[in-house]
Amino acid sequence: MSKIGLLILAFTALAVSPVMLLMNQLYVSAGLGVAGIAILVALLVTSGEKKK
Questions:
Q1: What domain range includes position 21?
Q2: Does the keyword Transmembrane apply (predicted)?
């Protein structure tokens, strides 16, 4: 998957997380929040690597 696609997926997961929390879907909200943060951290790590 391209980096732009992963970025869109991460922001979508983070945007949906509070909506799920309002719908009393605590575990789904927590899972989406953690997944969004994990994807963003992975993108930051891979974008910071120097290519040879």
A1: 3-48
A2: yes
| DSSP structural state of residue 50 | P
Domain count, the chain: 1
Chain centroid offset of residue 3 CA: 12
Number of H helices, E strands in the chain: 2, 0
Q: How far apart are CA 36 and CA 17, in angstroms?
A: 9
pTM: 0.75
Residues across the chain: 52
- What's 1's DSSP letter? -
| pLDDT tens readout for residues 6-36 | 888 888 888 888 888 788 888 888 888 899 8
Which residues are CB-contacts of 16 (< 8 A; sequence separation ≥ 6)?
Answer: 32
